[in-house]
Amino acid sequence: MKIGRFSDGGDPFWAVVDLEARTIDPVEDSIGSWGPIVCADGPGALTRSGAQRPLDGLAVLAPVEESAKVICLGATYAKHVTGLGVQSHDKPAGFWKHFDALVGPEDEIVYPEISEGFDFEVELVMIVGDTLDPGDPERSILGYTVGNDTSLRDHQFGGSVTGMDMFTAKSAYRSAPLGPWIVTRDELGDGTPDLGLTLSVNGETRQSARTSEMSFGVDMLLAWADARTPLRAGDVVFTGTPEGVGHEDGRYLQPGDVVEATIEGLGTQRNTIGQRTSSTGGTA
């Protein structure tokens, strides 16, 4: 099942997506209400309105509510880590992303004026549907979606007196696309999904890998995050990116670039990089 978040000009709402029919069927209440039900009893237990409507003409939003925690895990693909000069390791790195950094799968990406090293990172993203069961962490996964964990590399590496400014690097205003929708876990089977993920800039493939290349399983990543902050329905967990990012060859994103991030079976996001702006909306 595909569950997305949409707007018709009013308040955002959740809906089940039928891509073949190009329709949606709205779902009442917040993800905190129905997420645990879907995790426990499957997508068939989800109550829909029955008032189907056309998908076309609706704004496709990032599939997340404003109350969600957005957690990013890194150093999860060996080749990418090696390309950044990091030696072997036995656990991921973690950091926060502010909610205001997220945009939808078709929205313009704001290019922050404070950076000269704006980079891309296609990632498998887990959407949490329930509190974590220590004996079966995977059961708390509602589903998966596509993320582009854009990074300001000049701030990530050497951006502060401590050497890394991860807040600035990872939470630039309206910089990180998420979506198009959540594909429920039952469609992908047990364990870490084995899905192809690619990212292109202006039609040129820059990243291409498989999610099965991750050094850690999704259950371990969830448990690692939950040990640091309790996860709940609606929380978002980025799982890291493979090799091929712009930092490796210095080819960073520029205003006007078109970025397409795709994960097999989950969908594609297509975003244009806007002109350099400040977080307050002024043009540099």
TrEMBL record:
<dbReference type="InterPro" id="IPR011234">
    <property type="entry name" value="Fumarylacetoacetase-like_C"/>
</dbReference>
<comment type="similarity">
    <text>Belongs to the FAH family.</text>
</comment>
<dbReference type="InterPro" id="IPR051121">
    <property type="entry name" value="FAH"/>
</dbReference>
<feature type="domain" description="Fumarylacetoacetase-like C-terminal">
    <location>
        <begin position="69"/>
        <end position="273"/>
    </location>
</feature>
<dbReference type="Pfam" id="PF01557">
    <property type="entry name" value="FAA_hydrolase"/>
</dbReference>
<dbReference type="GO" id="GO:0046872">
    <property type="term" value="F:metal ion binding"/>
</dbReference>
<dbReference type="GO" id="GO:0003824">
    <property type="term" value="F:catalytic activity"/>
</dbReference>
<dbReference type="InterPro" id="IPR036663">
    <property type="entry name" value="Fumarylacetoacetase_C_sf"/>
</dbReference>
<keyword id="KW-0479">Metal-binding</keyword>
<dbReference type="InterPro" id="IPR018833">
    <property type="entry name" value="Rv2993c-like_N"/>
</dbReference>
<protein>
    <submittedName>
        <fullName>DUF2437 domain-containing protein</fullName>
    </submittedName>
</protein>
<dbReference type="Pfam" id="PF10370">
    <property type="entry name" value="Rv2993c-like_N"/>
</dbReference>
<dbReference type="GO" id="GO:0044281">
    <property type="term" value="P:small molecule metabolic process"/>
</dbReference>
<feature type="domain" description="Rv2993c-like N-terminal">
    <location>
        <begin position="1"/>
        <end position="63"/>
    </location>
</feature>
